[in-house]
């Protein structure tokens, strides 16, 4: 097994895990919740989703052959809360992730050390992937945080619930012994 292929497998799993956190959060939110923001300086879930999707479509379209900051992208518009519904937001959300996963599935071991550009800055494919992973994790964390605040006592935990750490550990240990 080549190291690069193992890396691509792991990266796809990590991106799927991030998407899953976002999906599970958004599923808990109402139409009104997706547009909530604390103040003028903060973004709603709908805005964060628009930004993530805009970034994904720009970065991952023609990934190996054109700059990741496409001329058709209007980043500033991504920060306007103008999505009309949760359904429209989900369509935007899926468009970004589908673009990302299509490209990742096409990458091969030998691509990882090729050069790509983002706003004219040279990156290896490996560096570009890591850059996007950190960026997406940052924003998914924001979405989860907003969701937890809005849902409060109705929040369905996406990880190990408070007070259940030992129970979870024992469950995982038993699972690994099988």
From TrEMBL:
InterPro entries: DinB/YfiT-like, DUF1572. Pfam families: DUF1572 (PF07609). This is DUF1572 domain-containing protein. It comes from Siminovitchia acidinfaciens.
């Amino acid at each position: 097994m080549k190291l690069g292929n193992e890396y691509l497998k792991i990266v796809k799993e990590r991106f799927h895990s991030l998407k899953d956190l976002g999906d599970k959060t958004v599923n808990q939110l109402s139409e009104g919740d997706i547009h909530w923001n604390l103040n003028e300086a903060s973004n709603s879930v709908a805005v964060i989703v628009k930004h993530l999707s805009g970034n994904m479509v720009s970065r991952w379209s023609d990934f190996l052959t054109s700059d990741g900051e496409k001329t058709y992208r209007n980043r500033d518009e991504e920060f306007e809360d103008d999505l009309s519904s949760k359904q429209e937001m989900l369509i935007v959300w899926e468009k970004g992730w589908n673009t990302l996963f299509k490209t990742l599935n096409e990458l091969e071991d030998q691509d990882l050390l090729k050069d790509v550009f983002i706003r004219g800055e040279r990156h290896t494919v490996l560096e570009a992937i890591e850059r996007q992973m950190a960026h997406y994790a940052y924003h998914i964390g924001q979405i989860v945080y907003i969701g937890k605040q809005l849902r409060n006592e109705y929040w369905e935990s996406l990880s190990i619930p408070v007070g259940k750490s030992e129970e979870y550990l024992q469950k995982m240990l038993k699972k690994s012994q099988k």
